[in-house]
């Protein structure tokens, strides 16, 4: 995939069915999000974007927003497009929104997801703590990570 083929824009309700399919493909053992969950996130005033290649949704990311902080709710990229920069592009889009609003960013990530942890560390996140058995039903642990507000 060439970078010019990738477009990132607001996630739409029309994308939700595909998002739920991707969830089931990527997270079958950890209670994948339903279509209703995505609709609720989109309706709840959060910031969600989708990554498309040739009109096909290949990834998505969401940032929960409050007046005081933001949190990465999800970043997902279909298997065939992982490790090609799509996740990095999605994360940078979320971080740009948080920076625009002057908000710190928090997240949870599976302790065994080394590529994601490396991506977060490279973008200014630090380990804050550990949540035992955070992901259900698998019981996988999660690191909590945070990045201070960029108020430039």
Query: What would you say the CATH architecture of the domain at 3-108 is?
Result: 3-Layer(aba) Sandwich
Largest sheet: 7 strands, mixed
Return the string of H and E elements.
Answer: EHHEEEHEHEE
- Within CATH, the superfamily of the domain at 3-108 carries the name Gcn5-related N-acetyltransferase (GNAT)
| Strand composition percent | 35-45%
CATH class of the domain at 3-108: Alpha Beta
Strand order of the largest sheet: 1-2-3-4-5-7-6
Return Rg in Å.
15 Å
Q: Tell me, briefly, the overall form.
A: globular
Annotated CATH topology of the domain at 3-108? Aminopeptidase
Low-confidence stretches: none
Our count of helices gives: 4
DSSP summary, beta strand count: 7
The span between the termini is 33 Å
Mean pLDDT: 90
Helix content range: 25-40%
Structure write-up:
With 152 residues, the chain is an alpha+beta fold. The chain has a domain at 3-108: Gcn5-related N-acetyltransferase (GNAT) (Aminopeptidase, 3-Layer(aba) Sandwich). 30% of the residues lie in helices and 36% in strands. The protein has helices at 16-26, 35-43, 86-101, 114-122, and strands spanning 6-10, 47-53, 56-65, 70-77, 105-110, 126-135, 140-147. Strands 1-2-3-4-5-7-6 form a seven-stranded mixed β-sheet, sandwiched between helices. It starts with 5 loop residues before the first strand and ends in a 5-residue tail after the last strand.
């Amino acid at each position: 995939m060439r970078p010019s083929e990738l477009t990132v824009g607001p996630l739409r309700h029309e994308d939700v069915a595909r998002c739920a399919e991707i969830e089931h493909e990527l997270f079958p053992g950890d209670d994948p999000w339903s279509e209703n969950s995505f609709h609720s996130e989109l309706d709840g005033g959060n910031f969600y974007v989708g990554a498309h290649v040739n009109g096909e949704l290949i990834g998505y990311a969401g940032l929960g927003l409050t007046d005081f902080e933001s949190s990465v709710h999800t970043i997902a990229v279909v298997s065939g497009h992982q490790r090609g920069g799509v996740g990095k592009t999605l994360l940078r889009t979320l971080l740009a929104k948080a920076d625009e609003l002057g908000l710190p960013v928090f997240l949870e990530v599976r302790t065994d997801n080394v590529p994601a942890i490396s991506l977060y560390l490279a973008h200014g996140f630090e380990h804050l703590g550990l949540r035992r058995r955070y992901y259900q039903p698998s019981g996988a642990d999660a690191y909590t990570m945070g990045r201070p507000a960029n108020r430039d």
